[in-house]
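This part of the workshop introduces the protein records we will be handling. As an example, a complete record with its sequence and its structure tokens follows.
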Amino acid sequence: MTARDALAFAARALTTERRRTFLALLGTSIGVGAVLVMVALGEGALRLVRAQFDVLGPNVMAIVPGKSETSGALPGLVGAPRDLTLEDAEALRRAVASAERLSPIVMGNDELSVGDRARRVIVLGATAELLAIRRLEVRSGSFLPVEPWDRGAPVIVLGEALVGALFQGENPLNHFVHLGRTRLRVIGVLASQGTHFGVDLDQTVMVPVATAMRLFDQSSLDRIALQARPGFDLERVEERCRAILLERHGAEDFTLTTPDAVLEAFEGILGVLTLALAAIASISLVVAGIGIMNVMLVSVSERTGEIGLLRALGASKREVGRLFLFEAGLISASGGLLGLALGWALVRSAARWLSFLPAAIPAWAGWVALLLALSTGLVSGILPALRAVRLDPVVALSGRRR
């Protein structure tokens, strides 16, 4: 008996019991589709994180107060023995020759008002260098002025969404606004930036760092952003910054982070989560495999006469077993292909509803899911095939079920 004959035999057997075959196909296709959706969502989350880091310029690093390895919390969320100050930032700017740009940063929130219109906004205190470090674009006017860091000119740059909400079509340039109780002049409007790391930059205002420090009545910085010159090794720049701050603070009460290091950590976490979700989803494939095995066992029981006739016509035990393995493989392969189509359709639908998440099915995931489905079907077909092989030809030919 050729492979073509075995395939035709399996196809005929499956089309005879269409309802039973449909249920087995449905279980496999749902399992494959679930695995693909989980992998696609994980891939989408990873792409989203990478896109967030793409907004940063090359060779960028950040310095935040607090030592994450010893404090037991994320850096910047707990107090440090000694805060970062403008003097620390000045010392780094003077001593780190490989630093092309450096900006001290203060963050907070306050009420922005124009006449009787007001809105709660995120306030970012920085310097002119942040424009290049964060790859920001100015739609109209200018960015923060180049000035001594401790001066703090009474000026403000608005996020794009705030212009429409507070000025209602008017040109905001050179208008005065109130940020809290501080009166500031609008000198620029940022181009639309979207959301980065959970912060909507279109709803953010930027002021000189000293202005923000006076506004929030604080003498410390929330972080220092630094961009190394092209061609310089960022690790060596990091070592130089660490040495300077250690000399000033007397202890390593700060954390230096680079986008690559943070991205690597995110990729590791998301990779594990994706595999875990895919493993959970693959449980449905195991259930589908049990369904295929039950279908095949019932098929063997109902077709004892057919099995006996095959043996009487000279079919060997191996050929009979192969027929039922072909049948199980055909169910799982067909279910796997349907699952690929189902997963693709679900991911496309998710991409429409979750437009912020660039979900996509990697090519390797499709092949792996298909191989898993086929393997599950073949393994599930082993027990029914063995039962068919062990039937006594004489008893089977009589048509009696066992």
Observations:
- The longest strand covers residues 99-114.
- The longest helix spans residues 259-302.
- The chain is about 55% helix and 20% strand.
- Residues 125 and 209 are 4 Å apart (CA to CA).
